[in-house]
Amino acid sequence: MKEAGAAGRGRPRFLFWVTIPALATIRAVGTALRGTVSVVGFALAVTAVAMLRTSAERRAPADAEFELDVPPIPGEVARALSFGFRSLLADFTLLEAIQVLPQRHGNMTPEAAAPLDRRLFRLLDYTVEVDPKFAGAYRFAATALPHETETGQVFGVLSAVQILRMGLRERPDDWHMGFLLGFLQSYYLRDFPSAARSLSIAAKQAEAPAWVGLLATRLAAQGGELQLATALAEAMLAQANEDATRKEWQDRVNALHMEGDLRAIEEAAQRYREARGSPPRSVQALAAAGFLPELPREPHGGRYLIEADGTARSTAGERLRAYGLYTRFEIH
Amino acid sequence: MTPILAIAGNTVRELVRGKLLYNLLLFAALFVAGSLLVAQLTVGNWVRIILDMGLAALQITGALMAIIIGVGIVAGEIQRKTILPTLAKPVPRWAFCLGRYAGLVLLLVLNAAVIVALLRAVLWLAGYRLEVTALQAAALICVEFAVLAALAVLFASFSTPILAGSYAFALFFIGHLLPDLRTFAEKSQSAAARTVARGFYALLPDLELLNLKSQASNLLAVPAAYVWRAAGYGLGYAAVVLALAIFIFSRRDLN
After folding, report:
1. From the CA of A171, how many Å to the nearest CA of chain B?
2. Among A122, A151, A268, A325, which residue has the least CB neighbours within 10 Å?
């Protein structure tokens, strides 16, 4: 009966008290084993991955030389294919150029620096081709491209001038374009008339500091372009609306008139010497002999004198000269 | 007017609940914030990089939304047949089309306002301020969204969602190439090619007219007269395209 009863309840008491805990234990052991195996398996997998990575890194082929260069698409095509995002594209090519610059060391030989110079120029040229209004790229080109060697050789000036000429054409409103171009033309190329013209464009911009115009006139005078210098100084005087600025420009106009007179006197003195065989004693003598149309009036209130070597000077003002421009570079 | 406003409001509510808007907004936010890091790689002028990346994020996310959602709000509804209960009510088809379009454009403008606010915050953090040209550029980008949304609705009114999206994306790209098409028309030796190119130039939307991003990032002033005219052109083009979409949609058999 008992057994029947037990069978009627489904499972004998003995089995309930003995087998169920055993089964539970086995199940717990099984679970623990499965958990342990999972943890160990996971740890093994992580270790294997780490080992494989280290092993792969050890056997990895050498890095290919990564060169930042212009995209293979021409700038004009890239500008069209940027679908309206051309300034963003120009930003990224400028950023590439900025990454190239630190690779050029000061003690690099010109031969070693040449590929970097070429790449820098191409990237900057590409940048301004994609976005011709990018003033920052022109300014960066003016400072990054030219570099000197200890032997007086200069590289990258002509490339920088080429880019800045485009900058002056595209962004005449930014006075830095004319100023930087004028600086390169005067300092490296010693082309004072061109430098004066570039600086005079810069000086006409409202935001340009006053000294840009003064420098332009000084360079024009040095380069023999007195007409340009005088025209610029008179234009600046006409638009100056502060007393201090007006005085500054009036002084410059006077100095340019004086420079014109001194050149006329020197030229007349030369002709006098050639005609008479001896130098003139004074400016008055030159005028009296008809070598000067009239006795020039010194604009500062002083007098003009002729030195023994035939050079003329004023007793009241110094001649206009651009100082510090006597270094001669070998341009490449 | 009431059904249009009701449908427009409903469209905004429906789209605000969607995940696409937030995903694209998150992308734009990351892009704009990331510009602050990228700007540190350049020399001197950070404002350009921040503006370029910010305005690009605004345009990319907005164009994607305008086309994907623009197609979905008409072609998607037709495909899923969810349009039928709406049209069973006394709502004319033109009102449905116009309401859906108005809702989408409103959402795109709101989205643009959020991104511009974020851009302004990033510029402020970098020590710059948002110039007028950048705001003009953002305004014209919103006009471009209106054009793209209208094109998406037009293509969705007679095509499947995938095809409609493809056509709208194609026009987005072509629209930015139109000045080159004009140059081609001017320089072409063949009279036939010149006529065809001029025809396409007149027909297709000139999206480059609405692109002031370069001027904004170069801090160049743009005359207000230009902005008004360009905006007028864009909105007028969108209106014509939408009218065409309504005309086609009104005659379409939805069964």
Report:
1. 10
2. A151
- Cα-atom radius of gyration of chain B, to the nearest Å? 20
pLDDT tens digits along B4-34: 888 888 888 888 887 888 888 888 899 898 8
Query: What distance in Å separates residue A77's CA from the closest CA in chain B?
Result: 10
Lowest mean pLDDT among A105-109, A175-179, B207-211: A105-109
pLDDT computed for residue A113 by the predictor: 80
Q: Can you tell me the distance from the alpha carbon of A174 to that of A164, in angstroms, rounded to the nearest whole number?
A: 12
What's the pLDDT tens digit per position in A175-191?
888 888 888 887 778 78
Q: Name chain A contacts of B59, Cβ cutoff 8 Å.
A: 84-85
Closest-CA distance of chain A to residue B100, Å: 28
Distance from CA of A186 to the nearest CA of B (A): 26
* Cα distance between residue B70 and residue B245, in whole Å: 12
The string of pLDDT tens digits covering residues A301-324 is 888 988 888 888 888 877 766 544
Q: Which residue of B has its CA nearest to A144?
A: B43
Residue A125 φ/ψ, nearest 5 degrees: -65, -40
Higher-confidence position of B241 and A64:
B241
B177·A136 Cβ contact <8 A: no
Across the interface, which of A80, A94, A99 has its CB nearest the CB of B177? A80
Q: Tokens standing for B205?
A: 């939307």
C-alpha closest to that of A302 among A314, A318, A294 = A314
Taking CA–CA distances from B221, the nearest residue in chain A reads A173
Measured between beta carbons, which residues in chain A are less than 8 angstroms from residue B171? none
| Beta strands across the sheet bearing A153-155 | A147-148, A153-155, A330-331
Global pTM value: 0.69
Q: Which of B31, B43, B204 to mutate to test the interface with A (most CBs of A within 10 A)?
A: B43
Which chain B residue's Cα is nearest to A99?
Answer: B41
Closest CA to A212 of A200, A223, A222: A200
For residue A282, the SS3 value is coil
Contact residues, chain A, for B218 at CB < 8 Å? 87, 131, 133-135
Interface test with B, best of A79, A85, A95 (most B CBs within 10 A): A85
Residues of A within 8 A of B177 (CB-CB) are 80, 83
ipTM: 0.74
State the amino acid at position A44 in one-letter form.
Answer: L
Cα of A84 to nearest chain B Cα, Å = 6
The phi-psi region of residue A67 (left if phi > 0; otherwise alpha if psi is between -120 and 50; otherwise beta) is beta
SS3 label, residue B158: coil
Span B67-76, mean pLDDT? 87
CA distance A119 to A194: 28
pLDDT tens across B110-154, in order?
999 999 999 999 999 988 889 999 999 999 999 999 999 999 999
Q: Does residue A4 register a pLDDT over 80?
A: no
* DSSP letter (8 states) at residue B81: T
Cβ–Cβ contact A85 with B under 8 A = yes
What does the alpha-carbon distance between residue A284 and residue A282 come to, in Å, rounded to a whole number? 5
